[in-house]
TrEMBL record:
Entry function: May play the central regulatory role in sporulation. It may be an element of the effector pathway responsible for the activation of sporulation genes in response to nutritional stress. Spo0A may act in concert with spo0H (a sigma factor) to control the expression of some genes that are critical to the sporulation process.
Annotated ranges, domain Response regulatory: 2-119
4-aspartylphosphate: residues carrying this PTM: D54
Keywords: DNA-binding, Phosphoprotein, Transcription, Transcription regulation
GO biological process, one term: phosphorelay signal transduction system
InterPro entries xrefs: CheY-like_superfamily, Homeodomain-like_sf, HTH_AraC, HTH_AraC-typ_CS, Sig_transdc_resp-reg_receiver, Tscrpt_reg_AraC-type_HTH
GO molecular function, one term: DNA-binding transcription factor activity
Protein name: Stage 0 sporulation protein A homolog
Keyword Transmembrane: no
The keyword Hydrolase belongs to this UniProt entry's keyword annotation: no
Length: 379
């Protein structure tokens, strides 16, 4: 943090410099000047957090200096110093949002109290701004991931997160939960807040079991640091989060390749191969709206690779396997006399009864109604 002292009396500058415990308030750069015009140049160039200024100075008084300084640095916190107990000065100081109004001769206690108050206000407002921007960037990144990765959202994201706009080179990371009932939203929000606050990245949910992390690739790599953070997250939220990070890639151009390859690394690290996971996923989620496109995206594989590899492994096409699972489950459900054909179709993931009947006939050689009749069941 930076601060500046402005007074036309050298001994006042020296007193302020020596009496305040600047290190205690994390102020590591202190500027001093005897001229308000020079002070304005420093304020514009260095953007200090704290300004201590005398009121009566030649060329430009302290009140005018504060007014002009706030135009160049709206977040600046000001403390006025005066040899006169003048109520009108105090009123104007309040009107300009000054943190404190100190009378000469300056005291150690008065100076430190005023600086502490100014630093506290500055940090509080900075945190509010940071949280607001962090929330905005988290929402934008979530939309980018979940609503088609449009160029509009990407450019909005770069605008909201300036440290992302400095480079096209990134590491893309994926955190994966194998536990379907684990709520990852709090984990994603916590991770994003930390990354954003440290200016090293952003994070958001891609789906209910995947968190995506974006880390700018500068001269140093933040990947090791983030992986250590993930270990702490697992402990804090009592969740297992296998993760992987891509090598440096150009975004958004290389997004698809980076995402698919990184997700494949995560799945391999989980201890079971991807095809077995897909096979098990279909057995558990056949009643949901599954498709080849969805499964390829969900497990980070290309359509052609998934289709070809699944058939080679299980000697059956993926969609055909899904259909057989659904129809076999429907046959079991038909034993329930209280369920209609339409209700059974819905329960096995085929909401259109007419389409269900066509598929059922293709697999079994008869319609659902005929099957029930032949098996002794009634509608």
């Amino acid at each position: 943090m930076k601060a500046i002292i402005v007074d036309d009396e050298p001994h006042v500058l020296a007193v302020a410099r020596l009496l305040v415990d600047w290190e205690k308030y994390h102020i590591h750069q202190l500027f001093e000047c005897m001229d308000a015009t020079e002070a304005l140049e420093i304020i514009e160039r260095e953007q200090p957090a704290i300004l201590l200024s005398d009121i009566r100075m030649p060329q430009m008084d302290g009140l005018t200096l504060i007014e002009k300084a706030r135009e160049k640095n709206p977040d600046l916190k000001s403390i006025l110093i005066s040899a006169y107990s003048d109520f009108s000065y105090a009123q104007k100081a309040v009107g300009l949002g000054c943190v404190d109004y100190l009378l000469k001769p300056l005291t150690e206690e008065g100076l430190n109290d005023a600086v502490e108050k100014a630093v506290t206000q500055y940090n509080y407002e900075k945190n509010l701004r940071s949280e607001s921007q962090s929330d905005k960037s988290h929402i934008l990144f979530s939309r980018y991931l979940q609503e088609g990765r449009s160029n509009e959202y990407w450019h909005s994201l770069l605008t909201a997160v300036p440290f992302l706009a400095d480079t096209e080179l990134f590491h893309l990371g994926i955190l994966f939960s194998q536990e379907e009932d684990t709520a990852l939203e709090p984990v994603a929000e916590f991770l994003h807040q930390y990354l954003y606050r440290e200016n090293i990245g952003i994070a958001a949910l891609r789906s209910k079991n995947i968190i995506v992390v974006l880390l700018p690739a500068y001269d140093y790599s933040p990947v090791d640091r983030v992986q250590q953070l993930i270990l702490r997250l697992e402990e804090k939220f009592s969740v297992s989060l296998p993760s992987a990070f891509s090598s440096i890639c150009v975004l958004p151009k290389d997004w698809d390749d980076a995402y698919i390859s990184t997700k494949r690394m995560v799945l391999l690290s989980c201890g079971t191969d991807t095809l077995e996971q897909i096979h098990q996923y279909i057995l558990e989620h056949y009643a949901e709206d599954l498709s080849l496109d969805y499964l390829a995206e969900h497990f980070g594989l290309s359509l052609s690779y998934l289709s070809r590899s699944f058939k080679k492994r299980y000697h059956n096409g993926l969609i055909n396997f899904l259909t057989e699972i659904r129809i076999n489950k429907a046959i079991v459900l038909m034993k329930d006399h209280s369920s209609s054909i339409a209700e059974i179709a819905l329960q096995v993931g085929i909401p259109d009864p007419k389409y269900f009947s066509r598929v059922f006939r293709r697999v079994t050689g008869c319609s659902p109604a005929e099957y029930r009749k032949e098996s002794g069941d009634s509608l």
